[in-house]
Amino acid sequence: MNLLFLFLLPVSAYLLGSVPFGLVLTKLFTSVDIRKEGSGNIGATNVRRTAGNLLGVLTLIGDVAKGAVPVAVGVQAVPEGGFGSELFLAAVALCAFGGHLFPLFLRFRGGGKGVATWAGAVAAFSPLAVAVALLVFVMMACFTGRVSVGSMTASITLPVAVFEATGSSAMTAAAAVAALFIIARHHENIARLLAGKEPSIFR
Q1: Residue 5: its pLDDT value, please?
Q2: CA separation for the pair 170, 118 (Å, rounded)
């Protein structure tokens, strides 16, 4: 692989991950500052609740794409198999994920929880693993009525699903690291769940 490519793809992944689609869309099409409404999060769930279903869906698509695109480029460019290739793809995925959590364009503050971006990144590497995690997400979100519960359980499921689907130790480790960050980013949701104050998707 070209050394310039090895440097540029992770950097590009981080920059793309830093694009706050939820904030951009709500500023373009509403008078809402998503950071001051609802949970204050720039992700699709808060956008949907405060600015409507259409912008919520568009935010979700943007957040998934900014994880999927750089990893898909890497999958096509790097040689198949081998720990080095898998480690590079895991690094690209984590860069996109890190961009969403700590966006350069928002001065490293106010990033989202990273669920959609991480799902997109892993889907470009292992669609089957993400399909399993998505099933877990849907089951838990419907059972509890809370998106946050679905997101957290799916993120915990994903490292196991990645390992079973691919056997990649590098991507499995990356998925475990991402799961820890996702759980940490849900600390306010966890507090609301314990207090019985977490909003339901059925209301």
Answers
A1: 79
A2: 15
